[in-house]
Amino acid sequence: MNWDDLRFFLAVARTGQILAASQRLGVNHATVARRIDSLEAGLNAKLLLRRPTGCSLTDAGVALLASAERIEAEMLAARGALGDRDIRLAGTVRVGAPDGFGTAFLAARLWRLTVDHPDLVIQLVPVPRSFSLSQREADVAITLERPAQGRLVSRKLTDYTLGLYASADYLEQQGRPRELRDLAAHRLVGHVEDLVYTKSLHYAGDVMPGWVASFEVSSALGQAEAVAAGAGIGILHGFVARREAALTRILPEIAIRRSYWLVTHESAAALAPVRHVAEGIVDLVRRERAAFGDDAPSLEGPPVEAGGRAGSQTKVPPR
């Protein structure tokens, strides 16, 4: 097994396609396929499942990926120690994020991290789901909770606040709730409960036990669009709702506090492209922390190993 074969394997693992890997490496796809065949023969193990739609890692491939990335990280560290400070950032870094944060915040800003690095590709995947870093579903993940286990490195990005919102048209037609119990007489918008992927999203019951939505949407942005269109009253991210002129906050004393965490796998955290993107996201949040609310300070600190639990708070006035 030699480093060149591992380099080709890493490219396929990161892009998910032999053709895309060949384009990143500047060779033809037959060369990439031949290198992978050579590596599999040398290890006597099947590393990739090749399908018309792309490649996925086998269990052996996942195990090799962790080792290959450690070797890559050690080589980059050695180059740095020897004075090679101008390491070219190249390859693909995938960022998985909740749809609210990913679309409403990152999409308009994250691309800037590629401007000075023409060989770097950033893939932003803003969908309401969890991402497996060990399975290479993402290189950097934004989560709602600090991971409690696994070979993961995490740091807190920021707290953010959710509140109750409705459209001006809805309030004109249906009236404005004056206290929490008034919500029982209104149409409510909420999550599709059986599709909620993390306990941090179970906040409707904290606001009002028995919250029953007449219209359910599986994404934060979809809920905001529905509420803005007059579907009813919903619990929305403040930094998303403030983008919609049609939305009005009601019962402002009700505030739900949640947090965003930035997580990488320990084998990828030291890789220059991943580190560049992760640190760039931290910097973007730090510089625009006001977007997440006046009472939601950015609390980023040094990366920490997986473990512990993220704190969350819900402030609801006495009923």
Automatic annotation (TrEMBL):
This is LysR family transcriptional regulator. It holds the Pfam family HTH_1. It comes from the Bacteria. Residues 293-319 are annotated as: Disordered. Residues 1-58 form the HTH lysR-type domain. Gene3D superfamilies: 3.40.190.290, Winged helix-like DNA-binding domain superfamily/Winged helix DNA-binding domain. GO terms for molecular function: DNA binding; DNA-binding transcription factor activity. The lineage of its organism: Bacteria, Pseudomonadati, Pseudomonadota, Alphaproteobacteria, Hyphomicrobiales. InterPro entries: LTTR, LysR_HTH_N, LysR_subst-bd, WH-like_DNA-bd_sf, WH_DNA-bd_sf. Keywords: DNA-binding, Transcription, Transcription regulation. The keyword Transcription regulation applies. Belongs to the LysR transcriptional regulatory family.
